[in-house]
């Protein structure tokens, strides 16, 4: 049996002058638990289900950090495809839509959303939908809301794992990947014009690969700790600003979103069966699909200044 241990070698790491320091932890979560109201079982025909559990790691000063995130409460999207909470494809997805009212006199906007593995969608600072299935199987959804423009879109994105604290999954200790795509009827689509920032990065061993941004594109996909003892790998945690989803939040120091072809993200039917719904939108993430496990991204409607 692998030893589930936590060893803190480097308490903080400064990524760049003028930004918040990140907290470094090492090893697996000291406890795990069911996470919010995310699915704990499947009622549909899905062949595979893995619960999205959360865990606690402890920083050098004793601070408890929940990984990979603290899920928000919010409405579920209407199913486009969901074989966990439903039969699979939902042919009445447009008729079933419920409108989230942000501004009573605002314009009505509809959107199609797919995330690997988990997303929360905010518009002008208000949550519009959160993925009901945090990990596996994959699902896609439709949302509708009323809001006054210009619109600020913000998404919390999580590449979930089963080895909490070191960002890996399954018995093979895979370094999993993420990806998110969305298209809205106001013409807003995910792409390179969005901005993203990683806040939970693992597995890591040599911290020098993390550059200002943070930019982990130069970090090896499978650092030496994965081959030696994956439970010994490190993680970097950055503090998430409370107002990150608000229209007035300053994201000027966030990096441009990196776009990825669908082939680099998923072949799951929840997306591949409905590509036409997403128009010319592109999959986005930070600069590292594999080790950036909690990523926040922001985009603006075409009429935004």
Key features of this structure:
6-stranded mixed sheet; globular; single chain; 2 helices; mainly beta; 305 residues; 9-stranded antiparallel sheet; disordered N terminus
Strand content: 25-35%
Number of helices: 2
Mean pLDDT: 92
**Structural class designation:** mainly beta
Please provide the ordered H/E string of secondary-structure elements.
Answer: EEEEEEEEEEEEEEEHEEEHEE
Return Rg in Å.
19 Å
**Largest sheet geometry:** 9 strands, antiparallel
Strand count: 20
Gap from first CA to last CA:
56 Å
Helix amount, in percent?
under 10%
Low-confidence regions: 1-12, 14-19
Q: In one word, what is the shape?
A: globular
Characterize the structure shown.
The protein is mostly beta strands and 305 residues long. Helix content is 3%, strand content 34%. The protein is built from 2 helices and 20 strands. It has helices spanning 224-228, 269-272; strands spanning 12-13, 22-26, 31-34, 53-58, 64-67, 78-82, 88-89, 99-101, 107-116, 118-123, 126-130, 140-147, 152-158, 179-184, 195-204, 234-237, 255-256, 258-260, 283-285, 292-300. Strands 1, 2, 10, 11, 13, 15, 16, 17 and 20 form a 9-stranded antiparallel β-sheet that branches. Strands 6, 7, 8, 9, 12 and 14 form a 6-stranded mixed β-sheet that branches. Strand 4 (53-58) and strand 5 (64-67) form a beta hairpin. The longest helix has 5 residues, at 224-228. It is globular, with a radius of gyration of 19 Å. The chain starts with 11 loop residues before the first strand and ends in a 5-residue tail after the last strand. Residues 1-12 and 14-19 have low confidence and may be disordered.
